[in-house]
Inverse folding.
């Protein structure tokens, strides 16, 4: 799936991912390929991107995620 992580300052990540784990405001959740459409708020915590067998972790301070047709858009308030 295509993932973009954007803050008010810059685009932090853009590329393909096989799984993304989010710090939701109601708890942690994961999105995989062909996930159902979703819009959710994000809390402070680790956003983990799995791609090509490697993991990359971004610590975010809140935001919103939208999942639609294998496109994941994260609007993060800040990367801390």
């Amino acid at each position: 799936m295509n993932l973009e992580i954007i803050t008010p300052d810059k685009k932090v990540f853009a590329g393909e991912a096989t799984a993304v784990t989010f710090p939701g405001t109601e708890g942690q959740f994961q999105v995989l390929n062909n996930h159902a459409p979703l819009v959710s708020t994000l809390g402070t915590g680790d956003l983990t991107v799995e791609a090509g067998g490697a993991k990359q972790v971004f610590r975010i301070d809140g935001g919103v995620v939208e999942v639609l047709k294998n496109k994941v858009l994260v609007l993060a308030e800040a990367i801390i």
Remarks:
- The first strand starts at residue 2 and ends at 6.
